[in-house]
Amino acid sequence: GAVVSQHPSWVICKSGTSVKIECRSLDFQATTMFWYRQFPKQSLMLMATSNEGSKATYEQGVEKDKFLINHASLTLSTLTVTSAHPEDSSFYICSARGLAAYNEQFFGPGTRLTVL
Amino acid sequence: AQSVTQLGSHVSVSEGALVLLRCNYSSSVPPYLFWYVQYPNQGLQLLLKYTSAATLVKGINGFEAEFKKSETSFHLTKPSAHMSDAAEYFCAVSAGNTDKLIFGTGTRLQVFP
Fold first, then answer.
1. Pairwise CA distance, residues B105 & B113, whole Å
2. End-to-end Cα separation, chain B, in angstroms
3. How far apart are CA A109 and CA B81, in angstroms?
4. pLDDT band at B27 (very low <50, low <70, confident <90, very high)
5. Residue A21's closest CA among A57, A48, A55, A61?
6. pLDDT tens sequence across A48-61
7. Residue B53: pLDDT above 90?
8. Separation in Å, CA of A91 to nearest CA in chain B
9. How far apart are CA B21 and CA B85, in angstroms?
10. pLDDT at position A40
11. Yes or no, beta carbons of B94 and A6 under 8 Å apart
12. Cβ count near A40 (within 10 Å)
């Protein structure tokens, strides 16, 4: 089946620093990748949608200058949290969609970000 | 616009009992509906999906769901719960012409021995 990986699986950083999270589709080409944020015991909230080679589309209320998304190839998308603050601490999950029908997305295992 | 409502943030059942997790949707276009399971500190795994074919959908791990248009529902069931079914379950809806998945708030399933 389709496999999506994320790296790192967890990261702790100091306030004010930037953190990059990678999302890779390992065995298929992902034309579209999605980034979600999940607070403890809550649902997933879509942050942005990125298509390979074009700018990401951000959901309302998500700061595009703070959460930089790059989808440079059909197998890699990155999310960079710039100038991180404690309120950015969360579980970030990516998903990838290839050319399969029915809008199916394959999810990565998530990245736990803790900002001190 | 699409939305999903999951009734019951927590459901507890005994091992071997029927599992019923409720999901109601709202969609202005024919929906695609999904159930995902999430184990602690992990991503989401697709259990099953409805994509306008058969209304009774069978998924992995013995789960199934029935699409009922008249009730705008897509409830998830399993005849006999297993301890390993304890997890968070999310219902999601997607419109036919977009890629966005709209998630419900989730239902935590506890299974007691």
1. 26
2. 41
3. 25
4. confident
5. A48
6. 999 888 889 999 99
7. no
8. 8
9. 12
10. 81
11. no
12. 7
Which of A41, A49, A110 has its CB closest to that of B43?
A110
Q: Please state, in angstroms and rounded to a whole number, the distance separating the CA atoms of residues A49 and A60.
A: 12
CA distance A11 to A87: 15
Indicate if the pLDDT at residue A33 is higher than 60.
yes
> Which of A41, A103, A108 is facing B99, going by the closest CB pair?
A103
Tokens representing B33 are 């509906």
Query: Which two three-digit tokens encode residue B20?
Result: 């019923």
Question: With an 8 Å Cβ cutoff, are A108 and B99 in contact?
Answer: no
Amino acid making up residue B67: F
Residues A68-100 as b or e (16 or more Cβ within 10 Å = b): bbebeebbbbbbebeebeeebbbbbbbbbbbee
Query: Residue holding tokens 């697709």?
Result: B46
Across residues B74-86, what is the average pLDDT? 97
pLDDT recorded at residue B33: 93
Q: What is chain B's percent helix, strand, coil content, to nearest 5?
A: 5, 60, 35
- Cβ within 8 Å of residue B53, ≥6 positions away: none
Looking up tokens 């999270």 gives: A21
Tokens, residue B66: 């029935």
* CA-based nearest residue in chain A for residue B50: A102
How far apart are the C-alpha atoms of B95 and B101, rounded to whole Å?
8
Q: In chain A, what residues touch B31 (CB-CB under 8 Å)?
A: none
Mean pLDDT confidence for A31-35: 91
Position A101 scores a pLDDT of 55
Percent helix, strand, coil in chain A (nearest 5)?
5, 50, 45
Whether residue B51 and residue A34 make contact (CB cut-off 8 A), yes or no, is no
